[in-house]
Write a structure and sequence with these properties.
GO terms for molecular function: phosphoric diester hydrolase activity. The chain has helices spanning 11-16, 29-34, 91-97, 100-112, 135-147, and strands at 24-25, 37-38, 43-45, 79-84, 120-123. With 161 residues, it is an alpha/beta fold. It has one domain. The strands form two sheets. A three-stranded parallel β-sheet has the order 3-4-5, covered by helices on one side. The protein has a two-stranded parallel sheet with strand order 1-2.
């Protein structure tokens, strides 16, 4: 496991080595005793959003760290987890929030994390939303991570014959 903000292996390298599973724990002692990565040694995480009343968690234009997490701009932690779901799962509201609002929050959290894109995104009801659902924001995120474009499909190299 990389220490001090170093890079993690590429998924393609993990596949080649047949080592594709990353497991994290929230129990600090398990890293020493069982070799399971203690999540707070490796990642920062934002506070989840409360769609129902808007009084806690993330608000449009703001991305704050979860209480257990280091500050979001702590670059000694190389992974970023963005939570985007309500404290009470409401299926109907996920349709409203899992597309454009999620893209907006990913951009907001990008700034809050010291210009780092999320490695993980957690949402409720990923299949429910308008437009491209939570898949389009994920395509945007992967495009930014892979090639600096706002859609992963732009990263594909086309070959002419």
């Amino acid at each position: 496991m990389p220490k001090g903000g170093q890079d993690w292996p590429l998924v393609s390298d993990m596949v080649t080595k047949n080592q594709r599973l990353l497991v994290f724990t929230s129990k600090q002692e398990k890293e020493q005793s069982e070799g399971i990565a203690y999540q707070w040694n490796y990642m920062v995480e934002n506070q989840a959003h409360n769609f129902a009343d808007g009084n806690d968690g993330m608000k449009a234009g703001s991305c704050s760290n979860k209480v257990e997490s280091s500050p979001l701009n702590d670059k000694t932690k190389s992974l970023v987890l963005v939570n985007y779901f309500g404290s009470v799962p409401i299926k109907q509201l996920s349709c409203q929030f899992n597309y454009e609002d999620l893209v907006s929050m990913l951009n907001t959290c990008y700034g809050a994390t010291g210009n780092r894109w999320a490695n993980f995104v957690a949402v409720d009801f990923y299949m429910r939303s308008g437009e491209g659902g939570s898949f389009q924001p994920t395509d945007t995120l992967n495009g930014e991570l892979i090639c600096g474009c706002n859609d992963v499909h732009a990263c594909v190299v086309s070959y002419e014959i």
